[in-house]
Amino acid sequence: MPTLTLADWQQRARDLHIEGRAFIQGEYTEAQGGDRFDCISPVDGRVLAQVASCDQADADRAVASARAAFDGGSWSRLAPAKRKAVMIRFADLLEANGEELALLETLDMGKPIGDSLAVDIPGAARALRWSGEAIDKIYDEVAATPHDQLGLVTREPVGVVAAIVPWNFPLMMACWKLGPALATGNSVVLKPSEKSPLTAIRIAQLAIEAGIPAGVLNVLPGYGHTVGKALALHMDVDTLVFTGSTRIAKQLMIYAGESNMKRVWLEAGGKSPNIVFADAPDLEAAAQAAAGAIAFNQGEVCTAGSRLLVERSIRERFLPMVVEALKGWKPGNPLDPATNVGALVDTQQLNTVLGYIDAGREAGAQVLIGGQRTLEETGGLYVEPTIFDGVDNAMKIAQEEIFGPVLSVITFDSAEEAIAIANDTPYGLAAAVWTADLSKAHRTARALRAGSVWVNQYDGGDMTAPFGGFKQSGNGRDKSLHAFDKYTELKATWIKL
């Protein structure tokens, strides 16, 4: 297949049909109150679609649909091997419609089309397929019981799952939840972010085409303070899973306690340290990785390497290498396959990022590169990738999650100091260590309070290992077999022989 050009993608964007309605009981439907909101592209500021703005009434409809589907058993009691086949078809359909989904993702969220095609769509399909493939390979247990008793330990689906997903990787994060939730037999009400709802709305129809029964997957676009709150407080939702900010995560825990004590699993914010020791085996590779760790996806990544900790003895040699590497990350039209830095998701996020850049300057940190809005004439929302030097870990830009391409450089003198700085944060999502000393790598990795630690790389891994955070970065784990724990209940059944 020939490589598509900017002009090709622009024409496809003009021809694209965009669905903006909610999806309940197997069909698209307007919000019951008739409310809509404009879905605005950060690429150029144009309105992509009017999207249903769901509320309490719609949450009630969707949860009732999900409950009826679960209790009916057409999915929840289907043999795991049969659910597996449907999940694989669902993944296949995502891939078959990959170009359409990638275009929706780019127009809606602002990420480069090359990333949507190479990262988001394959990652989403992989999550569905991996969970489907795994589900008929998980066995129940028999407890070590006396000869006159049989103790069976079985996993059962929790029931109705409400999944609230973020705007930075809309489709992939949705599928990280949908894969294990659906594979284990649950029904799901999916609430995408109002900032980027379009791919979630689209894949609902693909789920039906794959063979998932009506009512098993419902999609409710809308605002967090209305439909998101309604789902979190709903008395007939059994489990709530969420990826997003720590502030909202804490509020969702309160809502769960105020309602039916539903299970709440949260993947929240991060302020990940990227530690480069003087004995790093390849400083050029470390510099390239440091640039990519903050510029990829415009820095709108929960695991962004937003704190670069550099050993003092290599600082003067290493920092110019990072600056030079970041020059290769340039904002541009996200529909251009050559672009590697796209637009920030909306005006609110643009202003947030620019506000942090101002705060860094006011605190006395020095801008080495970037620090400005750019391409304003396009109508899009673009910011130059930025490096601050002379950062103290107590500064606002080093303590708070920015969710933009803003890197804070902090110098250290010993491994103990590096670990102390790295752990001096409310978050604990991810970290990286660069050293040629295997013992130092292990000691440092074990001392870091983070759910994922990478050694001599940044952001490695696949579906086989769990993903999640320590401290205020959340609880529970996505990906791997451990993800099934969030969507299943353990039951002990005792049989007298």
UniProtKB/TrEMBL annotation:
One of its GO terms (molecular function) is aldehyde dehydrogenase [NAD(P)+] activity. The active site is at E267. The keyword Oxidoreductase applies. It comes from the Bacteria. Residues 29-492 form the Aldehyde dehydrogenase domain. Keywords: Oxidoreductase. InterPro entries: Ald_DH/histidinol_DH, Ald_DH_C, Ald_DH_CS_CYS, Ald_DH_CS_GLU, Ald_DH_N, Aldehyde_DH_dom. Belongs to the aldehyde dehydrogenase family. This is Aldehyde dehydrogenase PuuC. The lineage of its organism: Bacteria, Pseudomonadati, Pseudomonadota, Gammaproteobacteria, Pseudomonadales.
